[in-house]
Design a protein that fits this description.
Blueprint: H1 2-30, H2 43-53, E1 67-71, E2 88-93, E3 99-105, H3 124-129, E4 133-136, H4 141-149, E5 154-156, E6 166-167, E7 177-178, H5 181-191, E8 205-206, E9 216-217, E10 220-226, E11 229-236, E12 241-246, E13 249-250, E14 261-262, E15 264-269, E16 272-274, E17 284-286, E18 290-298, E19 301-309, E20 317-319, E21 328-329, E22 333-338, E23 345-347
Parallel strand pairs: 1-4, 2-22, 4-5, 8-21, 15-22
Antiparallel strand pairs: 1-3, 2-3, 6-7, 9-19, 10-11, 10-23, 11-12, 12-13, 12-14, 15-18, 16-17, 18-19, 19-20
């Protein structure tokens, strides 16, 4: 009888120990605060937590290859669609004192971009430095030649169907061609173009706020491309963004009606001249390679910079007056490439 009792007691003790062990194990697995730290064998979750806490640049991320789209900037083309969704927009002079825009998109899905307009050869230099698929609707003779010789992955909307590049009824031709990111990617896949990219961003973005403490006040910036074509940016100290005006009008988005704004503005001075391409249309040319003067503008301040580009496809390096590469705020950027003799004004809003 005594032996039986002892056996029963031992069995009960073994069961009790097993139950306690199971409870303790489950607690260690489910309670991240157990013993004041994460569970040791939960190292994968620990790494995820650490990564999540680190600030990440939002304007340029992921492996989607950028898409560069030529955007019409004629008064009859405004308002345009997609400018606020671009991580960078380049504006450069074209014939007749007009300017044209090239908007760069990465990892966004847009139902309408445009109006899409024809290519000019010097825009290729900035599409190449961003490793972008280059989208346009027609081309100048020099652009056509350079696209071929430089091996640019391009999409010419004139050669595509009206389902991929369509004309809208609320604008008049030739300022009324639209497309979408979905259609661009369909064409890119059909042509066998790479749609992913591991290339770093042109700009050195930072998640720490860049305030340019020693810069000059820059709340009202006027950039004249010609007598009839001026761009103005007005700073909003509450949003810490600039609102865009073109040809005396506040610019808004074609789809949303929202103001066109920018976090960063880069002004770059490059000499332009008339190109003899045999068509006598006054098309322009410029040498983008070399060291160019300019300004970096953000958060109501501006500093002088140099913009260094060693080849047409090389990425531009933006440096301050001490020769250090500048940090740029995490946000969208307009690169205003204007004539070298343009009388750019940078001032406070209170100035007459």
């Amino acid at each position: 009888m005594k032996k039986t009792v002892v056996i029963i007691v031992v069995i009960l003790c073994i069961i009790a120990i097993g139950v306690c062990s199971a409870i303790l194990y489950n607690r260690m697995q489910n309670d991240s605060t157990f013993l004041g730290t994460d569970v040791v064998n939960n190292s994968e979750n620990q790494n995820d937590t650490i990564v999540a806490e680190m600030p990440q640049v939002q304007i340029f991320k992921g492996t989607d290859r950028p898409i560069a789209v030529m955007i019409d900037n004629n008064i009859d083309a405004q308002p345009q669609a997609g400018l606020n969704d671009a991580y960078m927009v380049y504006e450069i002079i074209v014939e007749g004192g007009e300017s044209r825009l090239m908007a760069l998109f990465k990892g966004v899905s847009l139902d309408k971009i445009g109006p899409v307009r024809s290519s000019r050869h010097y825009f290729l230099d900035y599409a190449l430095e961003n490793d972008a698929i280059y989208v346009h609707y027609g081309w100048s003779p020099q652009a056509q030649s350079d696209i071929s010789s430089l091996g640019v992955n391009n999409i010419n909307g004139i050669s595509e169907t009206t389902k991929e590049f369509w004309r809208v009824k609320d604008k008049r031709s030739p300022h009324n061609v639209a497309t979408s990111t979905e259609k661009i990617l369909e064409i890119a896949n059909r042509k066998g173009y790479r749609t992913t990219s591991s290339k770093d961003s042109v700009l050195n973005y930072t998640t720490d706020e860049v305030n340019l403490e020693n810069g000059q006040v820059a709340e009202d910036i006027t950039i004249p491309y010609s007598v009839s074509n001026k761009v103005e940016w007005i700073y909003n100290s509450e949003t810490k963004r600039y609102t865009r005006y073109s040809k005396g009008k506040e610019q808004t988005d074609w789809t949303t009606g929202e103001d066109i704004t920018a976090k960063n503005i880069i002004v770059k001075f490059i000499a332009n001249s008339t190109l003899n391409d045999g068509e006598n249309k006054g098309r322009q040319t410029m040498n983008t390679v070399g060291s160019k003067d300019g300004y970096y503008i953000t958060n109501g301040k501006a500093i002088k910079i140099t913009c260094e580009k060693t080849t047409r496809s090389a990425q531009t390096v933006y440096k301050d007056e001490n020769g250090n590469e500048i940090d740029v705020n995490d946000g969208n950027t307009f690169v205003q490439i204007c004539p070298i003799n343009a009388n750019v004004e940078i001032k406070a809003l209170s100035e007459e």
